[in-house]
Every structure is written in C-alpha cells, then in structure tokens.
Amino acid sequence: MPEEHFHLIKTSNAARAGELYTPHGTVPTPVFLPVGSQATVKTLTPQDVKDVGFNMVLANTYHLYLRPGIDIIEKMGGLHRFMAWDGAMLTDSGGYQVFSLAPLCRIKDDGVAFRSHIDGSEHFLTPELAVKYQESLGADVMMVLDECTAYGDSHEKVRKAVERTHRWAERCLKAQKRKDQALYAIVQGGIFPELRRQSAEYLTALDFPGYAIGGLSVGEPKEMTFAMVEETSALLPVKKPRYLMGVGSPEDIVEAVARGIDIFDSALPTRVARNGALFTSKGRINIRKAAYRKVDAPLDPDCDCYTCRTFSAAYLSHLFRSDELLGLRLATVHNLRFIANLMGKIRNSILDGTFSAFREDFLSSYKTTDEKTRVEQKGRWLRSTPRGL
Amino acid sequence: MPEEHFHLIKTSNAARAGELYTPHGTVPTPVFLPVGSQATVKTLTPQDVKDVGFNMVLANTYHLYLRPGIDIIEKMGGLHRFMAWDGAMLTDSGGYQVFSLAPLCRIKDDGVAFRSHIDGSEHFLTPELAVKYQESLGADVMMVLDECTAYGDSHEKVRKAVERTHRWAERCLKAQKRKDQALYAIVQGGIFPELRRQSAEYLTALDFPGYAIGGLSVGEPKEMTFAMVEETSALLPVKKPRYLMGVGSPEDIVEAVARGIDIFDSALPTRVARNGALFTSKGRINIRKAAYRKVDAPLDPDCDCYTCRTFSAAYLSHLFRSDELLGLRLATVHNLRFIANLMGKIRNSILDGTFSAFREDFLSSYKTTDEKTRVEQKGRWLRSTPRGL
C-alpha cells in the first residue's frame, strides 16, 4: 500500500472531496467505478473506458476465479495486463457473489462452500484464499471476504453474520502478503443500527486503509438504506475512504455523497443502458419508446459523450428496435459519460462549497420518467439483483 | 453520377487494379465492402470502420425499408447522415433479401409481393420503388431490382428469371431521377453459361456504370461458382467495375480477383467473427478452442489490428467463453482488418505485377483449420445463407 492511500481535501457538511493514491494512478473522489466483473466493462475497450472519463474500475474475484481461473490470469501477468487496463482497479472478494449467484452455498466458520453457477462444480472459499486470489489478480484495492445477509433476516442471524465477518476480516488482514495493495474492510449489520455501530467500531479498531458499507440496497426501502448509510458513515474514520458497495443510480449517488461516501460501484448504469434506459439531464428515459423514432437531435443535447455528439436519438432508437449490438455499446458510453460528468460536478461543487445547492438542483430536475424501468433501480432480494453483474 | 465512375489502372492477367469515384470519396479497387444491413456494421462505430481500413460500406434497402422505414431516414437527411458515415456507400436493392428472407414472396411481372420477416405485414416492391427508395437513402451506388434463382432451379425457370431481371433493369434505369448515384445492373443466369452470356450481353447494351454478378455462392459447388465468375466476368465491359455479390471468404476473394472482379461484399467476415472464427496469416482458427485459453501472445502475431496489438489470444478466448459482448467487437475488428490488409496486398501485387505469385503464396499458406466452421463458408440454399445478413 502506498504511504498515504487517501487524502481528504475538502468537506461540505458530510460530503467529502479527496484523492485516492494507487500504484496505477491518483483517483479523485467521490468516484464511481464502472463494473467489469469478467475483466471487461461490457461492450467497451479499456480505451473507451478512459475516453468516457474513468481511471478506476471494478472486477470480481468470484467470476474470474471460475472463468478463466486465477492461475491463468496470474500467468498472464495479473489482471491489469490480462485486460489491458493500466488505470486503478478494485476487486471484490467474491463474498457477495457466492451468496447471491452460486447455488447451494453453505457457510461455515472456516469459509464458504458453493457450487459454480456455470458448471455446478464444487468450491470452497476462505478469507485466506480470497486474499490470495486477489493478490494474484493484483488489483490496487482488495476487499475482505464477508458474510452477506438479506433484507428480512432476523437480528440474530445478522448478528452472527456480523461476528463472522469480523473474524474473517482479521484473518484477511493476517493473510495479506503484498503490501502494495490496499485491503478494505466491509461493515455489515443489515438494517440494525446497533449492529452497524458494533461492526464499524470493531473494524475501525483493526485500522484498515479503507472501509466499505456492505449489505445495503438489497431490498430494504430507500429511506432505510440512506438512514443506514448516514449512521454508518458517521462512525467511520474521517481519514479513510468510504465505499458504498453496489450503488448506484445517479440520484442514489448524490444522496450517498451527501452522507459522506467517497467510492461507489454498480452495474446499474451499464446494465440499464443495455435495456435502453438512458440518463439525461432531465431524468431517465427509455430509448425504446416510440416517441424517439423520429427525433432528429441528440438524445440529450446537454451531453458531450461520443454517442450524443455523433448520432440522433432516432438512430439510437433504430439500433435498439433492430437489436443491433452497436446500440448496447453507444448506450453504455452515454450512461457512463453521464455518471463521469455527474461525479465531476459533485466533486467541483464540494470543492467550491456549493454541493447542497447542486444536490437540490439535481434531485429536483432529474426524474426517472419511465416507471416500468424504475423498478430495476429498487433493490430486491439478493439473488435477483446481484451486485456487480 | 460523376463524369468518370471507374478508372482501370492496371491489369495482371484477368486481375484488375483501379479506382471508383463517388460523391463520398475515391475507393481503390479491388475493394471489399463491410456489410451494414441495418445501417450499422455490427458492433462497430463509423470511426471504427474507417480505422480498420474501409472507406466504403454496404447497406440493405430491404432491412431499412422495413425498419426504421425509408421515410424516417429521408427525414434524417439520408442514410449517410443517419448512420454518421461520410465515406462511400452502396445499397442493395432488396431483391435478394425479399427472395431469401421474406416469407410468402410472390413474384409478378410488375414486381414482388412479400411479407415482412419482422411483423408479417404485406408489401409490394417494384423496380421503380427500389430505385426511389435507394434515391431517398442516397447511397453512392444503387443496385437494380433483380429476380434471384436458387441452385437446382431448372433452365426454364432461370431463363424466365433472367428475362424478367432484364425488363426490370430497364425499368430501373428509366426510373432513376438523381444523377449523382451510380446504378449497377445485375447479371443473372444461375449455373447456365449461355444464360449468363445472354444476360451479360443484354445488360451491357444498356450501358450501366457498373455490373454485378448475382445468384452465385448460393449452394453450387465452388468450382462451378468460379467457372461462372470467370465466364461472366470476361463478358463484361473492361471499363466498368465488376461486383461479385455476397463473396466472401479470404480465399474466395483472391480467386475472384484472379477472375477479374473489382468489388466484393459479404457478411461472412463479420458473421463468422461473432462465432469466434478468426482469420490469421496461417488460416482460419476458432478462438473457442481450448488451445487458446492460455496463449499469452496475440492471436496473430502478424496482425496490426487493435485487437492483436492490445490483447492476448487468452483474453479473447476468455471473452468468448464468457459470452462477453466485447469479444464480438474485437473479433469483428480483427477479421475486417485482415480483409482490409488482404485487399491492400492484392491491389499492390496487381500494381507491381506480382499478383500470380501472391495468389499462389496466399492460397498455399491460408488454411481453414476448423472443419466445423468451414461449413459456414459453403453456400447452401438461399434461405439459409442470406446475402448481407
């Protein structure tokens, strides 16, 4: 890990602007990480990802462990070289995916047994292996193995998961050999404030270089999500980066920044793009709607992305109606550019002290007009909305 | 049409090197046109297509008539502007697609009735409408409406189709209003040399600016295809460009250039790319094979495409095994770059008088190693291998 991993530059109430330092470059925060679970941000080349405005991405240990295999990536010189990405990178530990994607997952104190969702083969993941795999992958930020709970789980069940998560976090810390990678802890506790507090306190004492908030946006009402983010975030060390896993939508990012979050990742912007749901300055629209068939203007005249600079909404509409692969790519470019621009505006407004006004402005003008697609944004039970897919 | 549409620069036996002049630039020949049936070369942006090395593409009137509709494209300022392509463009008339894709197609002297393969709606296409639609689309080269026959059709059936194709060609010529577009005739005649000769003679007398050879590579044995190409090509006017529709594979292109063809189009390079079949200097391989899983080197070390300059064969293999969309794009870039390089080598060798040696060299080193995918290259009955899909 670099000497200083995170530097807090300015705050605006709870909102924070800072910088992450990694072996693959400096990352301004608040930052959103495009999701590249399988060593690719779907439809985009590494150059596209940079051109769109990102210099840090997320990949998933679970997916890469199953396919192509950690050994192959290691032989290829690590994940950066394998996927030709020279920017910063974070890998998730695989914990969440084992619980949300893998069939027949059985948890023990030692680790978690699961079957591959690809071929049904049996596997066993421990905190030590999660760290070992992530060291082989070589990402700049690694995550501890945690036990994830679901919305609706009892206090008792969540309490036990929190305690196991703590024991596992210690084991991960102990297992870490490479020192150029930052290992983040994950605060669990479901929707129970006192468990969240216990978790934050316990993990803070272990002095990790960064802290994630896990187990949210998994089906609980949105107000509950933000209440938990607010309470948990306030308990985390000021000088360490805070990462809200699996969030999210433009409006949720703004709300979470207002509660002190520095790092985000979510497959939502890219996944909904492939369904034709596109972010615009006035809110989210669906390009498949008949209204766009004849629009001889960019989808969002305020957008500076390649898609909006080059094509009309009518052309995008045509690509989606014709099931053309280029449509998925152009929509991905657009939504990610929207998020990159959003993160830039958020950060600038924190730096010049106008974040509250920006937040109010943004949330009043940004509407998710298509109610049908709105549903996708709401968390449901884990299995149906896996993080990072 | 520009004053001079085609200039023959050099010949090497039957092979020809020349230039096509179009309102959207000069195109060196022999040339291959990437297929963008639905106003997009699948997975690629217009910039990608240029970067890969092409300045002329093909689009299909049939597809665009059905979706988004000719009226919409016309309102958007024509097909060039709609798809943001400023290079040269050829549109097929829709004849072949009506016969190969549309259900319940019924041919009359006036035109052809068919149902949409998308929604079953009824339509009627005439030679006059085919020209009108193509004038609205605004491509640099248009094709006449022709009647296509299949391998196995009787002499009598093919003879009647040839005669109807001739009448329709005259009607297309008469219907043409815009003079900045070159309208090409299509020589038919199946596998019957005397019908091919009659067709070539009849259409040559009408003095079209270019001539296509249609109705080949639809199931007949390869030797028969090339015998027909050789005979027909020799009957066409020396000073006019010759276009072999729906061909092809690298080896077929080389063989057809040797028989005097100047223009090619085929969905094969891009379609097989999406199946993981990739052209290399040693022949065609399939990236899905297990052998590529651990190859820490470019797929083809002799290739200068973005894919080979950036990624290992192992990474490409991973993308295909993981059903990642980026794989389809990277494979498309690779195969099209291979064809662009091939066309460049062919042309240079004609210009410096070494084409025969190049042809011999190429055909002896280029092997299609994967027999299973080899089948795709062989024409079958029309419906199963539509041109331009």
Short description:
With 389 residues, chain A is an alpha/beta fold.
Note the main attributes of this structure.
disordered C terminus, about 20% strand, three-stranded antiparallel β-sheet, TIM Barrel, 16 helices, homodimer, eight-stranded parallel β-sheet, alpha/beta, about 400 residues
Structure, explained:
The structure is a homodimer of 389-residue chains. With 389 residues, chain A is α/β, with parallel strands linked by helices. Chain A has one domain (6-271, 376-384): Alpha-Beta Barrel (TIM Barrel). In chain A, 42% of the residues lie in helices and 19% in strands. Chain A has helices at 46-52, 61-66, 70-75, 79-82, 95-100, 127-137, 155-175, 193-205, 222-235, 250-257, 268-274, 306-310, 313-321, 325-351, 355-365, 371-377; strands at 6-12, 15-22, 25-29, 31-33, 56-60, 88-92, 106-107, 112-115, 122-125, 141-143, 182-187, 210-213, 242-244, 263-265, 277-280, 283-286, 367-368. In chain A, the strands form 4 sheets. Chain A has an 8-stranded parallel β-sheet with strand order 4-14-13-12-11-10-6-5. In chain A, strands 1-2-3 form a 3-stranded antiparallel β-sheet. Chain A has a 3-stranded antiparallel β-sheet with strand order 7-8-9. The relative contact order of chain A is 0.14.
Q: Estimate the helix proportion of chain A, in percent.
A: 40-55%
Biggest beta sheet attributes of chain A = 8 strands, parallel
Main interface: chain pair and counts: A-B, 38 and 38 residues
Portion of residues in beta strands of chain A equals 15-25%
